[in-house]
Amino acid sequence: MSRTVIHGGLVVTASDETHADVLIEGGRVAALAAHGTDAAGSWSADRRIDATGKYVIPGGVDGHTHMEMPFGGTMSSDTFETGTRAAAWGGTTTIVDFAVQPKGGSLRQGLDTWHEKAEGTCAVDYGFHMIMSDVNDASLKEMDRLIEGGVTSFKLFTAYPGVFYSDDGQILRAMQRAGGNGGLVMMHAENGIAIDVLVEQALARGERDPRYHGEVRRALLEAEATHRVIRLSQVAGSPVYVVHVSAQEALAELTRARDEGLPVFGETCPQYLFLSTDNLAEPDFEGAKYVCSTPLRPREHQAALWRGLRTDDLQVVSTDHCPFCFKGQKDMGIGDFSKIPNGMPGVEHRMDLLHQAVVDGHISRRRWIDIACAAPARMFGLYPRKGTIMPGADADIVVYDPEAEQVLSAETHHMNVDYSAYEGKRITGRVETVLSRGVPVVEGGAYVGHAGHGVFVPRGLCQYL
Predict the structure, then answer these.
(1) Which of 56, 164, 315, 449 could join 160 in a cystine, given CB atoms 3.0 to 4.6 angstroms apart?
(2) pLDDT tens, 41-70?
(3) Is the peptide bond before 384 cis (omega within 30 degrees of 0)?
């Protein structure tokens, strides 16, 4: 059984910062001991990693990705192989992707399709949520069986009529089922019926550029849908997790519900914290690069989102990584913003962007690890196997250089997409070494992992309840 020691670093978890050495044995954390103690000095090892002057942090847990996702007449450009490799480069060692129930098909059919895509191809570990496209008696019963198999969260949409949309009655029934079986319902909260009216009206007026994508998907319609799904969950007696919160008005609904003591949770994404409608308005169709839903908001929403992360009214930062190439995919919407595939790349940059937020004073180091590692692991039933560094946890560990500088660019990123949403952005902090279950994946500025190392991880129930 191989043994690895990481020595000399500052171990940062959601709860502690400790100058400690870490012993890894058989793919798991075996022990921690303070630098220079007899205990640490007595450890023999096959491999020693010097982390002096560096942070030793848990591998990131990205609870919201879309690899090989069919959408808008095309498919997201990262495969499970390329997407998980890019995740590893960025210090993320677990993703939870979304399997999709086919319209008229079963949940199991959709889940089997996603297992076939991912098995034997992933660089890091993965789990699945289940998108429910067709809520009926059969799919409601299937929810119980999926939970037994470690797929414990179910996503529904108040958006995308004719594709993923569920009406209030379907949402209520799914929430009632989750209230009984312990599952977590995740909601894409935008009023899709009203948005489609605004899209039709904008196109009729000749408003066809990418910036109108943000203008028709009004913040108030995100807030209205957020309020609605919260109240439906209250009627159902179940928790609800609202994905990709982008607007301060929607966050206010979450905050109000949490102040009432309701089991209501939310995530936001780096694009809403660092980008804005200024990007959507970039000329010559460049704004199409930033089309995603929920959409980017005016810059003044960012302060509210940062505050929500500090006050724990938002618990998680995920990426909603759903990349489409600018040429050949995004340009399907030239002359009609409603045909631009909705989605942005980001799985590689989440940990670095959030470290930049530490540098900029938005959040503390421990909060960085909480929102990027521990909280998503707890939210989706992976903690403490994932999301922390403690005896018994998987040795998903990143040695992070907090002083290194880098410039984000499509020329240097590893995602399978032809542009960077953060082109030219200067970042302080960089991943140096990545271990997945004790096995090096990134080392010395090189990818040393391989497809098939990552395995499916069955999840338990949400640990916030």
Answers:
(1) 164
(2) 899 999 999 999 999 999 999 999 999 999
(3) yes
